[in-house]
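Board notes (copied after class):
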Amino acid sequence: MEEAKATASRQGPSRTDLEPAEYQRLRRAYVGTPEYTAASREIEVAVVLMKVHDAALLRSARTLLARRADGKQPPRRLPKPRRLPGGRVPDWWMASINTSYAGIWRAIPAPGPELRLGGPGDPLIQEVARQARLLQASRSGYRGRDRLYEAYQPDGTPGGGEPVEPIRGLGPELSRRANLALGRGSGIRIQPSRMEEADQLHTDYFAVWDRSRACTAAVLALLRAHV
């Protein structure tokens, strides 16, 4: 991915060598070129392939850790990146990977197996447990993001207005979901009282890739130390 970004950067105008107005003018002209389209495509492909490989690495790390903790030999085959044969990367496949997050949510390990390899005071074990907890937080962010929204009636100010009245006979949560499903109100927003929670869920949700790589590295360091 870094190589694709570097290639795109070399092809476009340089911000450091130009006045701001001239840079913006050349940038707008460059965006409409076939070179820009090709570079953007290369970056999109690189991001998707990174997701596929990161998910496979996390699945492999989880499998190796679980088997070592159970006193078993490593499997003959580890999980492989889920890629199409022939190196093809069509748009529909990239869309499916982005939509499913390459299955990363199912690959997230639960904390615990590492404790069977040593005492809780071992810093390597502590790091594996910490990274597993962070990944669990990312999964919670992914699963919980939809519960923060509500239907409301805008009053003309940014984000201002009143939530749609609850549906009689339903509890607050069921009413909130029903209002969204029925399309009541003329706007959808994050509940104002839950903005701080929304920020944390957003941070955890999008940190999953960095956390998956950190967890994999922590697991491998632990396994090497307990050969």
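Comment from the instructor: The mean pLDDT is 85. The longest helix spans residues 34-69.
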